[in-house]
Amino acid sequence: MQAAMKTKRNLVTAALVAPAAAWLTVFLVLPFIAMLVFAFGERAPEGGYQAAFTFAQFANLPTRAAAFWNTLVLAPAGALLCLLVAYPVAYYLAVKANPRYRLILVSLVVVPFWTSLLVRTYAWMYILGSRGIPNLLAMIGIEDVRMLNTPGAVLLGIVYGYLPLMIMPIYVSLEKLDRRLLEASADLGAKPVSTFFGVTLPLSLPGVMTGVALVTILLLGEYLIPQLLGGGKVFFIGNALVDLFLQSRNWPFGSAIAVTLVAVVVVVLMVAMRIAWKVAGTRQVDLV
Amino acid sequence: MRVFISSVYLFLYAPIALVVLFSFNAGRSASEFTGFSTAWYGKALGNTFLVAALENSLMIAFTSAALAAIFGTMAALGMERLGTRTRAVFDALFAAAIVVPGVVIGIATLVALVAVFSFVNPALATIWPGDQPPQLGLGYGSIIAAHGLFSMALVTMIVKARIASLGRDIVEASSDLYATPLTTFRLIVLPQILPSILAGFLLAFTFSFDDFIIAFFVAGSKTTLPIYVFASIRRGVTPEINAIATLVLVASLLLILTARVLMREKKSKSGE
């Protein structure tokens, strides 16, 4: 009787997780294995994949060094710029804002993140394009300013696109902060500035870490922002991948780059978690 | 401080406002506002390619989000009952589905499906009785599957969080009162997790509706709305694109607001 109930329980459990398990296997695990296999293959003469076992694709990685370089420099730089803009906003929302309007102000920060990144990014094509700000500058005599298709434009797009995602985790960690600590600090004679650097900032570091890690990881696979605002001059690994798969149809090389990208993401994630661990002590930090 | 905060909000909304404003421009210009008109909306909705892309996007978003909501909820419920080790494997896979960049998910799905097709299609051709054997290919199915992967992970996470905060005592009371597990689920558990499931569904719908990069890889010859918009941008921005973009923004906005209301309801209930 007991055993029969246990078997039934196990069957129900298996039935509940079976579709998810199948989906994860067929559309995550197997594709990843296929990609690994492709990465050791050769490009077929007509494009696509041809079976082989060679490390040539990985040896070729330096030919795309520019994409890796741009990604590994501009993604963290963009995340840090984001942080510089986001921190005061998160601080204002969590500490200074009138509680009555806080929820509305927080929602107003989140809403843009959930609307189409494609649309929001192309708006900047317009503003930075020759008929936008450069046109206005020309009217006051500053001629020939090029803004679009520069690293600056890509960084601007990154800050714009990912700002909400940086503000939220910092806001959450600042909101949880115990106000009595701030009062205690003031009572003990600390100036507001010392309170900020001695109490507020250290206690918000888990949120800062989460934000920087989240944004950096998402940026490593970014395609749209460099494509639209970098115009093929400032490109990321994502752009190289689209080029290799959809234009030059060099699937094995593309797979090798994709595998390397995932390795980079894993390393960044591990480093971020290690730092977060140190910063937060034993407190749990959710990166995802 | 005030000035800085205000300028950040301006920074966040000015580009969006500009797109919306120019969608109502009477002229063709994308830099000079020459008068108010809704003509571009009519033009956009009269564009058969665009409407087809919109229909594709809606169908794909609905199907992938619905599948993700059903299977993701089942997984969240089932994972509760799993042993620690199996649960850890699931957690890792779901985390991977969220952390792996979309561009890689797109590529991996493309590569795997093409490998499968190159094997299945000839096999199908040999055993097919008729003259024209069906050809498996990229299209709706591959986009739904790839979007569903991320969406399912999202739904599972949201529903799992809700389940974790659910009061066990009511569930126990229910079974003490001789309710069958199914009745307990239907009357006690489901009403409590339903808002989270719906929120997960709407977030998944929005994700699929807005996704460009995954669909770009696995769409084959099919066109979704973001793919159409992307292609149009490369031909040059017109007020018609602004009209479409405005419609896309409004649609995502409505879905997100609904999702947030549902998630908030969840919070206020758990606060009781």
Automatic annotation (TrEMBL), chain A:
Transmembrane region(s): 12-40, 67-91, 103-127, 153-174, 195-219, 253-277
Coiled coil: none
Domain of life: Bacteria
Pfam families on file: BPD_transp_1
Membrane topology annotation: Multi-pass membrane protein
Compartment annotation: Cell membrane
Domain ABC transmembrane type-1 intervals: 68-272
InterPro entries, A to Z: MetI-like, MetI-like_sf
Keywords annotated in UniProt: Cell membrane, Membrane, Transmembrane, Transmembrane helix, Transport
PROSITE patterns in alphabetical order: ABC_TM1
Protein family membership: Belongs to the binding-protein-dependent transport system permease family. CysTW subfamily.
Name of the protein this chain belongs to: ABC transporter permease
The species this protein was found in: Sinorhizobium garamanticum
Automatic annotation (TrEMBL), chain B:
ABC transmembrane type-1 domain sequence ranges: 54-259
Cell compartment(s), UniProt: Cell membrane
Stored Gene3D superfamilies: MetI-like (1.10.3720.10)
Family of the protein in this entry: Belongs to the binding-protein-dependent transport system permease family. CysTW subfamily.
Taxonomic source organism: Sinorhizobium garamanticum
Protein name per the record: ABC transporter permease
Coiled coil: none
Domain of life from the UniProt record: Bacteria
Keywords, ordered alphabetically: Cell membrane, Membrane, Transmembrane, Transmembrane helix, Transport
SUPFAM superfamilies noted in UniProt: MetI-like
4Fe-4S as UniProt keyword: no
Residues spanning the membrane: 7-26, 58-77, 89-120, 140-159, 187-206, 212-231, 243-263
UniProt cross-references to Pfam families, sorted A to Z: BPD_transp_1
Membrane association type: Multi-pass membrane protein
